[in-house]
Amino acid sequence: MPLQVKLPTHRIPQKSRSAVRFMIVGTLGTLLQISLYDFFLFCFGIDTNDSDWLVQAAFALAFVIETTANYLATSFYTFERKPDWKNAGGFALSRGVNYLIQAGLLALLLWLNLSDRVAGIVAILIAGVINYFILNFIFRRQTDNHNTH
């Protein structure tokens, strides 16, 4: 039996619930990653003229922490499933694919002369929608396999 999480979105029709929850988790995850990144930049005493590797380290730490929190929230809240190695592997793969999609879209949009800011926002939004469908497939497939055994 699937894990039942009773949070405010439980009143949303079942067909739309995971999409709404995904948007909530994604928004909170984005805010968390930006906040952690700023926090690590502050803790490391980094300003815009500092070493690239320190900036990359701050970004990587924020990404790893946010990805872990996002995985747990996606499992328990978005798709109402217990975390396991199978969906963790799928989640990690989807995050890698999501990053590649974002980077590719950003490069394309910049090549099309969109502003840096608009190109970044559009790339993130499109990649987020694609990521939802990838994760939906991973988590729903697990449910279907669970229900047939």
How does this structure look, described?
This protein starts with 13 loop residues before the first helix and ends with a helix. The longest helix has 32 residues, at 116-147. It is built from four helices and no strands. Helix 1 runs antiparallel to helix 2 and helix 3 packs antiparallel against helix 4 (116-147). It folds into two domains: 1-83, no CATH class; 84-149, no CATH class. By secondary structure, the protein is mostly helical. The chain is globular and about 45 Å long.
Whole-number average pLDDT?
Answer: 78
By secondary-structure content and strand pairing, the structural class works out as mainly alpha
- Give the C-alpha Rg: 17 Å
How many separate domains make up the residues? 2
What is the count of β-strands? 0
Major beta sheet, specifics? none
N- to C-terminal distance: 12 Å
Can you give keywords for this protein?
149 residues; mainly alpha; globular; 2 domains
Can you give me a brief rundown of this structure?
The protein is mostly helical and 149 residues long. The protein is built from four helices and no strands.
Task: Give a topology summary.
Elements: H1 14-43, H2 52-78, H3 85-111, H4 116-147
